[in-house]
Amino acid sequence: MFVPYILPPVHVTRTVRSVCPARAGVAGLCAAHTCVRAEHCPSTWVLLVDIAGPCISSSSWEFVRKSHEMLLIEEKYKSIAKLLLSSGTCPRCVLRFCCVGSSAPYRLPYKNLADELQKFLSNDGDIAPPSKKVRLGDSEECRSETEITRDTDVNEAPQTCNLCLGILQHLCSTEFVKQIFHKVQSAGYEFQDFVFSVSLPPQLLVREHSAWLQAQEEMRRQDRLLEKADIIQLKEAYKWIIHPMISEELGVQAVSKSLFEVGVVFCHQDTDEDCHFLVTVCKDCFKPTKNKQSVFTRMAVVKALDKITDDDFVTHFPWPPSTPKTTCQVIDIQCNHASVFVAGRYNKYSRTLPQTPWVIDGERKMESSVEELITEQLMTVFQADSFNFSSSGREDVDVRTLGRGRPFAIELVNPHRVRVTEQVMKDLQQKINGTDKIKVRDLQIVTREALAHMKEGEEEKTKCYSALIWTEKTIRKEDVEFLNDIKELKILQKTPLRVLHRRPLASRPRIIHTMKSEYMDEHHFRLYLKTQAGTYIKEFAHGDFGRTVPNIGSMMKTTADILELDVESVDVDWPPALED
Ligand SMILES: [Zn+2]
């Protein structure tokens, strides 16, 4: 009868020539076990039993040799482990400084890990099968690792760790994970996986540096090197422990790249001053910046630690670091979803509707805007925090946009709802179109990258307009016919007076590709124009006090003005047209 055990990773001591023991059908191992060749001895297989993975039977216990191999600590790091443990460092931080790069030992219940570490240090040779620890009765089923952690992972650590300030002790508890879960749940996001981020107080870097110098010293005595990069980072170890726990609560995977981010921000006021001595050594690193509350940013501390000599450091920050009275505080659990982008084309039928809210000195000049009419509905559906509106050019408040409309895109920042079907988009479009001021078509979700198409070749593209022109002198039909024959007319436009307050003064050449006139009466005619994008049509009509040359007025030897202007088409093939 097999009695299932759940084990931390173990070395398989049996030599299995060249076949993976799991595949070779070694008793107690199933093909799901992960076996890798040992680096130092290719004929030895190392069995890595993930404690969340398949069970290992009692007969495979014979493969397990010494207890310390459970921790995967190499013998050479023993002195580091001793040193740290005796100076107030937690077992998980000991694993980090002993360069244990496998996640499973960190996930061991805290008490078990502490016991194993003691055993390893006291060199007590062989161990008994772990029957008492994790015997699961007759069930062949494994319990999840988080369940196991829960059983014994009460805060039995006598004191807060002087390196992680309690993060690897108390802040990977079931209670804390529940706290994260409730925060995420109440925020009400739609997501299918998540990336977990941690913001650590900068003084942890000082404490780590202190421990690293000591560990390095220990290794030097053995004529060995210990690089800072060899040490497992606190963040990494923390994620190894907490990822599976949060995953289980949320019911989705923790991944390294996700649109949804759950972030935890830690601080530890009691030890805030740990960093302060670095100013005396590296003043330049700690210059006040506008946005930061404190000059002691992580970046600045890293820089300063890079500069400071070992002697200077030890003088100012003697080993061992003080044992803190309190654990790190959680100042924030943040959720954020990556932006969603929605694009489409709009028509504007009103001559009293600006494209974006028109506010001068805090006072609203027009009731609404194209931007507001569109985004109001989008914000409701996507439940975003804010938005950014952009478009392929813009029209004046009194200019209509007809034809197939003008491409636009809206970035919805931190949306809570993201699973939006085509049908919802269609309904949304219909809702937006419930006004006679604007009409939207081709409303769709696009990628951030696709937005570039909208701005692509904005200058080179052509635009078509229809203008109602007034002339001072009386005209006959023949007086406007010559315009039809003008092709590729080069004009020079100084920045119009009406936009000088927001655009730099410049002189730009523009091209009027074609014109077509339609006589109306003695003082009016309609002019259809196809021009280079970026041409100021109003100024081309009246001349802007000679700032646009030539212009309709100068060509017709009279004073001309523009009464109405419509954009007939914006020649940008994006976003793709959708079926109605
Ligand atoms: Zn620790």
Written description of the protein model:
By secondary structure, this protein is an alpha+beta fold. The protein folds into three domains: 66-134 and 142-277 and 317-335, no CATH class; 339-455, 2-Layer Sandwich (Alpha-Beta Plaits), CATH 3.30.70.2510; 462-570, Alpha-Beta Plaits. The chain is built from 19 helices and 18 strands. The protein has helices spanning 68-71, 78-86, 91-97, 104-107, 110-122, 131-134, 145-152, 174-187, 203-221, 234-250, 278-281, 298-307, 310-316, 370-382, 422-432, 452-455, 477-481, 537-542, 552-556; strands spanning 34-37, 45-48, 193-199, 253-254, 260-267, 329-337, 340-348, 359-360, 363-364, 386-391, 399-413, 438-446, 462-471, 487-494, 507-521, 524-532, 548-549, 560-570. The strands form four sheets. Strands 7, 10, 11, 12, 13, 14, 15, 16, 17 and 18 form a ten-stranded mixed β-sheet that branches. A hairpin with a 2-residue loop joins β15 (507-521) and β16 (524-532). α2 (78-86) packs across α9. The protein starts with 33 loop residues before the first strand and ends in a 10-residue tail after the last strand. The protein binds zinc ion. Zinc ion (ZN) binds at residues 89-90, 92-93, 161, 163-164, 168. It is an enzyme of class 5 (isomerase).
What's the structural blueprint in terms of helices and strands?
Elements (H helix, E strand, L loop, with lengths): L33 E4 L7 E4 L19 H4 L6 H9 L4 H7 L6 H4 L2 H13 L8 H4 L10 H8 L21 H14 L5 E7 L3 H19 L12 H17 L2 E2 L5 E8 L10 H4 L16 H10 L2 H7 L12 E9 L2 E9 L10 E2 L2 E2 L5 H13 L3 E6 L7 E15 L8 H11 L5 E9 L5 H4 L6 E10 L5 H5 L5 E8 L12 E15 L2 E9 L4 H6 L5 E2 L2 H5 L3 E11 L10
Parallel strand pairs: 3-4, 3-5, 11-18
Antiparallel strand pairs: 1-2, 5-6, 7-11, 7-12, 8-9, 10-11, 13-16, 13-18, 14-15, 14-17, 15-16
Bound molecules: zinc ion.
The site of zinc ion (ZN) has 8 residues, from α3.
Organism: Engystomops pustulosus (Tungara frog)
GO molecular function, one term: metal ion binding
InterPro entries: PsdUridine_synth_cat_dom_sf, Pus10-like, Pus10-like_C, Pus10_N_euk
